[in-house]
Amino acid sequence: MWALLLTAFSTRCPRVADLDRSVGFYRDALGMREFRRETFSEGRFTLAFMGYHNRSAMIELTCNWDQTSYRHGTGYGHVALEVADLGAACERLTGMGVKILRLPGPMTFAVDETGARENIAFIEDPDGYRIELIEAA
After folding, report:
1. Order of strands across the sheet with 11-12?
2. Is 42 among the catalytic positions?
3. Distance (Å, rounded) from C-alpha 98 to C-alpha 81?
4. H/E element holding 118?
5. Dihedrals φ, ψ of 107, to 5°?
6. pTM (predicted TM-score)
7. Active site residue: 60, 118, 124, 132, which one?
8. Terminus of the chain with fewer CB atoms < 10 Å: N or C?
9. Residue 11 forms beta bridges with which residues?
């Protein structure tokens, strides 16, 4: 039933402590563009919508003005981004001071059905959210 009602993935919404720092990270380190910013003075929060050229999926950075830090729950894993050259991407990010959590390499486990092992790496954004980088096949 839901498949008939939903038409696209819209956003992933991490809460961030410093909106400008996070916008800078997603723009400069990951090559995203800020499509719009919405300020809600009555609600005391600001949203920044970041993404790539086609806007098919965006990250909605949420900054609650009165909150300076967040605890990450165990129910959230990560967001994944595809890159053309994983090694070059990680080299560039390391040069920018981005924390690499898992060095580039094949996945530990293979897909049962195909035996495939994607080449992946994990980095961390300024608020400690994990981002998986997957090398395009």
Report:
1. 11-12, 58-64, 45-51, 33-40
2. no
3. 15
4. none
5. -60, 150
6. 0.79
7. 132
8. N
9. 58
